[in-house]
């Protein structure tokens, strides 16, 4: 059954990328990609950084609250998730998918960026005449942190 075309993964395929010559995140690699994201969207950059460094699920990241972040100890505790409960329920906050609570150590650079990000969130809240809640969501839709981002289904 020959179509005359070579298929990826088949013997004889003309690979566009020779072994060992590919880039993980395009030209410049992951660090360059993070610099670009940092420059254009600080919120998304922090989300991507925490996703990459903690291994947390989307639902766990959007459920992360400032009370879960210990910048002195450079740790984050994951204890909950935000999931879609169905058409009649909408989004709900619940325990993690596995039911586990765990703590993740942060690199100094990530902890420093998270500290700067929290200060940015405080400034945003003050700019509209409110305060960032101590138990507010890290990734929020309201300046006071009362409404989290929504995970995509």
By DSSP (H or I, 4+ residues per run), the number of helices equals 4
Strand arrangement within the widest β-sheet reads: 1-2-5
* N→C terminal distance: 39 Å
Which regions are unreliable across 5 or more consecutive residues at pLDDT < 50? 1-25
What is the N-to-C order of secondary-structure elements (H for helix, E for strand)? HHHEEEEEH
Beta-strand percentage range:
5-15%
Radius of gyration equals 20 Å
List the helices and strands and how they pair.
Elements: H1 29-40, H2 42-54, H3 58-62, E1 69-70, E2 75-78, E3 80-84, E4 91-95, E5 102-105, H4 108-127
Antiparallel strand pairs: 1-2, 2-5, 3-4
Helix pairs in contact: 1-2, 2-4
In short:
The chain is of the alpha+beta class. It is 33% helix and 13% strand.
Plain-language structure description:
The protein is an alpha+beta fold and 153 residues long. The protein has a domain at 29-127. It is built from four helices and five strands, in the order αααβββββα. It has helices spanning 29-40, 42-54, 58-62, 108-127, and strands at residues 69-70, 75-78, 80-84, 91-95, 102-105. The chain has a three-stranded antiparallel β-sheet with strand order 1-2-5, with no helix packed on it. It starts with 28 loop residues before the first helix and ends in a 26-residue tail after the last helix. Mean pLDDT is 81; it is low at 1-25.
